[in-house]
Amino acid sequence: MTLAHLLEGLRCASCGTPNTLWLDLTRALVECRECGQTALNVIDTDEGRSL
Asked: How far is the C-alpha of 15 from the C-alpha of 25, rounded, in Å?
């Protein structure tokens, strides 16, 4: 089972399609379900914010 959340209102930087980005919390990845592009979500543990 994968915990994934739709990132509404955001557009893929690669293909430009809106509302197709999903955040996979277990793998810390953002994935576009349209073109398959992925991005790693890196978190700065000292500050508790995304880089």
From this structure: 22
Does an H or E element contain 24, and which? Answer: strand 21-24
* pTM, entire model: 0.73
Instruction: From 30, 31, 37, select the one nearest 15 (Cα to Cα).
Output: 37
The Cα–Cα gap between 14 and 5 comes to 19
CA 25 – CA 43 distance, rounded (Å)? 12
For residues 9 and 19, the answer to whether their CB atoms sit within 8 Å is: yes
The predicted-structure confidence for 1-51, as pLDDT tens digits, reads as follows 568 899 999 999 999 999 999 999 888 899 999 999 999 987 766 765 665
